[in-house]
Write a structure and sequence with these properties.
- The protein is of the alpha+beta class.
- It has a single domain, classed as Pantoate--beta-alanine Ligase, Chain: A,domain 2 (2-Layer Sandwich), CATH 3.30.1300.
Amino acid sequence: MTEDREGLAAKKFKCSTRERAMFEAGIKMGTIYHQFAGVPLDQDSVGALEDAIEKGVLVQPYVESVRVRIDRSIFGPKRDEYSYRSLSGEMLDVVLVIRIDDVRVKAEMRYDPLLKYPLMYISDAE
């Protein structure tokens, strides 16, 4: 059944396997950013959020690996119940590897201070 589904899906793509892998990487990066931006977190919950994002991404098609790191430097001591932050793109550092057949694409997301923007980009394609 899996091979039949993959064959049916592959026929929909009018591009190379390399281009499809890049497309898949972009979809996953957009999902990470737009699904999790705004999530409340503090220094005690940041590790659990990193793990949850990674595990959620790993179940998606073609994901070979993913590493999510959230900048912990923004957290100070918890002074009271109101001492938490909301996740933003500036805090995310993500490395994702997509593999389709013999094509492997590495995509990254990290804040670029020169651009003042959380940039998502392809850093390697084999």
